[in-house]
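= Tokenised fold =
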Amino acid sequence: MFFLLFVSIVILQRLMEVVIARRNEKKMLAAGAFEAGASHYPFMIALHVSFFLSLITEVLVFERVISPLFLWLFVLFLLVQGLRVWCLASLGQFWNTKIIILPGANVVKKGPYQFIRHPNYLIVCTEILLLPLMFQAYFTAICFTLLNFAMLAVRIPTEEKALMEATNYSKEFKKKVSGIIPNDQQH
């Protein structure tokens, strides 16, 4: 079945990314990095695993079929995958599924990071919406989009706080960050 093959490829891609993340984590920790937000990380893993379980269950149990807009959604999905690889390549050893911060490091301001602060999170939000829509799994699309927004409401502030405290993040993103940091706390 096309759906199972397609989802299996996406899951394999995610598993390869976990291997890359673990390799990067070891390098960063050896260089003196620390993890921020460890308490919410298991919930994020549960969210992503549950997303795939929900998608597979909804499509198979409720016999969802390929969307009439599949071709357009698939093209968009491929573009998003290109952006995902661009994010990963731009961050290099700093890319991770965890929030791993190297004190004193200069934040990455190349690739998509020169345009927005968290392009990878935008990509994940888009994927969580696109994958189910490609197969008309509307419950999964709506439910996990909302759950992911809730997760990012915790994760992004945690990541930004750690970056501001340990790197040149505030300086590099001064124009974008200055509105949320009191003037006496800016570096």
